[in-house]
Specification:
Blueprint lengths: L2 H19 L24 H24 L9
Helix pairs in contact: 1-2
């Protein structure tokens, strides 16, 4: 796996995880302010969710990199 493939794999893993982590801990406020969507979360904690996503993505990317570098699963003919 070269550096470009590694970066692409990390970005794909990160975004998939981010969309999985987004709903964690979402609470809709009891009283919605004028002009806000009724389904908008009170405190989305995006920085915290991004940090958790990055940590998990690093671990999963490491597993993917290890599998690709050891040819445990080969996507090439031969």
């Amino acid at each position: 796996m070269n550096w470009f493939e590694s970066i692409v794999a990390f970005i794909v893993i990160w975004w998939l995880l981010f969309f999985m982590v987004l709903p964690w801990g979402v609470h809709v406020p009891d009283k919605v302010e004028q002009g806000h969507a009724t389904s908008a979360p009170a405190k989305p904690k995006l920085w915290q969710k991004m940090a958790v996503t990055t940590g998990i993505a690093i671990v999963l990317w490491g597993v993917v990199f290890w599998i690709a570098s050891t040819d445990l699963i080969s996507f090439r003919n031969g």
